[in-house]
Amino acid sequence: GRLVAAYRKTHLCDVELEGRVTMKESGFTNPGTEILAPVSTPAGKLGLSICYDLRFPEISLALRRAGAEVLTYPSAFTVPTGSAHWEVLLRARAIESQCYVVAAAQSGKNHEGRASYGHSLVVDPWGAVVAQCREGPGLCYAEIDLDYLRRVRREMPVQGHRRPDLYGTV
């Protein structure tokens, strides 16, 4: 193995859910300064993102414009945010970008004051969950079918329907 890309998380999770979770990543890490071009792999062109980046569709759409076929989101979502938002955000990123989404997630206690939601999963470009792990350690497999991805994109060509001339003019 050799290193082919190094992505640094661009959005830091600074949140306070009163009485549930407080996190201030900016207190111990610096944000990345760029989105990387998708990386070619045997499974397709991978767009790299991390955890809290999932909440910003602009990254997934930029990666799609750059040729991504698979978006990755390794994560350590908190239990309150994961149980409420994890799957729906992953499915939304897959649908809007028409990419596969692969999301490996830490599960269980990270340390005394923090537990992660877990539930690693894979979503296809139509938004269907095609593989999933439940709570606890696990492994799941999914077929990345690039012919299916191309069919979804051909039948519903949302990338060509986008109106960048209108966005940001409100």
Automatic annotation (TrEMBL):
Coiled coil residues, start to end: none
Record Gene3D superfamilies: Carbon-nitrogen hydrolase
Highest taxon, organism lineage: Eukaryota
Residue ranges annotated for the CN hydrolase domain, each copy included: 1-146
Listed InterPro entries: C-N_Hydrolase, C-N_Hydrolase_sf, UPF0012_CS
The protein's name in its UniProt record: NIT1 amidase
